[in-house]
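Hi support team,

I've been running sequence recovery on a batch of backbones for a student project. Most finish fine, but this one hangs at about 90% for roughly twenty minutes before it completes. I'm not sure whether the input is malformed or the queue is just slow. I've pasted the C-alpha cells below so you can try to reproduce it. Let me know if you need the job ID as well.

Thanks,
M.K.
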C-alpha cells in the first residue's frame, strides 16, 4: 500500500489526537497541549477542513497536519489574509526518516492548489527552510510577541503575494484554548492513558 495522504475523517479523530499527544509529549513542556488544540480547532471558524490531512503507511496512521486562517495587520490598517500550519507531527517511531517533509510538501501543494497566498508559522528554519520557508521579518512581517523573532517563518504560495508587506502577525486565538479553558483541557486530558510529565532540558515552557 505504501504512503497515503488523505483528508482526516471523523473516524480518525481520536487516533489523530493520540498521535499528536504521543508526538508532542514532554517536547516543549512537561506533558503537552497540542492534542487539545487540535480537538478544539475542528469547531473553530478559522480551521481549514480541506487542509486537514493524515498520513498513513500501509494503512497505519503515522502523521497529521492541519492549517487555519490567520492574518497580517498591515501598518496602514488593512489586513492581509494568510494561513498558518500546525500542529504537524509524525509518530515517534517514524521520525527522522523523511516522512515529515513529505507530509509538509504535500499539504503545502494542496494549499497552493486551493488558492491560498502564503503560510506563516513558528518553526525551525533548519527543517522548514528545506521546503522554501524564510524568516518572516525578511519579508517585512514581524511577530507581535517577539518582533525580531527568527523563528517566525513564511512561505509564499502565490509569487509576489508578500511583496511590499509591512505589518505584524499574531497567533490565531485557537492556539490559546488550553490557557483560556484550563478546566476543559484537564477534563479532556483525563480521558487519555496516563503518561508521566517530565521537565527536560530544551523545553520552552515550564
Amino acid at each position: 500500500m505504501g504512503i497515503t495522504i488523505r483528508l482526516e475523517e471523523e473516524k480518525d479523530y481520536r487516533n489523530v489526537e493520540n498521535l499528536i499527544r504521543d508526538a508532542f509529549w514532554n517536547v516543549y513542556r512537561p506533558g503537552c497541549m497540542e492534542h487539545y488544540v487540535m480537538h478544539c480547532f475542528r469547531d473553530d471558524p478559522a480551521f481549514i477542513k480541506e487542509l486537514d490531512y493524515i498520513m498513513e503507511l500501509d494503512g497505519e496512521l503515522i502523521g497529521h497536519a492541519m492549517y487555519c486562517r490567520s492574518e497580517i495587520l498591515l501598518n496602514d490598517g488593512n489586513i492581509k489574509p494568510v494561513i498558518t500550519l500546525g500542529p504537524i507531527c509524525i509518530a515517534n517511531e517514524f521520525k527522522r526518516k523523511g516522512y515529515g517533509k513529505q507530509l509538509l510538501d504535500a499539504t503545502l501543494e494542496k494549499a497552493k492548489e486551493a488558492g491560498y497566498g502564503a503560510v506563516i508559522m513558528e518553526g525551525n528554519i533548519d527543517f522548514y527552510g528545506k521546503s522554501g520557508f524564510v524568516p518572516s521579518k525578511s519579508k517585512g512581517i514581524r511577530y507581535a510577541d517577539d518582533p525580531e523573532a527568527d523563528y517566525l517563518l513564511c512561505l509564499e504560495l502565490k509569487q509576489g503575494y508578500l511583496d511590499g508587506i509591512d505589518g505584524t502577525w499574531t497567533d490565531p486565538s485557537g492556539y490559546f484554548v488550553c490557557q483560556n479553558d484550563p478546566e476543559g483541557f484537564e477534563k479532556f486530558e483525563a480521558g487519555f492513558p496516563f503518561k508521566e510529565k517530565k521537565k527536560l532540558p530544551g523545553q520552552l515552557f515550564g
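--
Follow-up from support: It reproduced on our side and the slowdown came from queue contention, not your input. The longest helix spans residues 99-113. No action needed from you.
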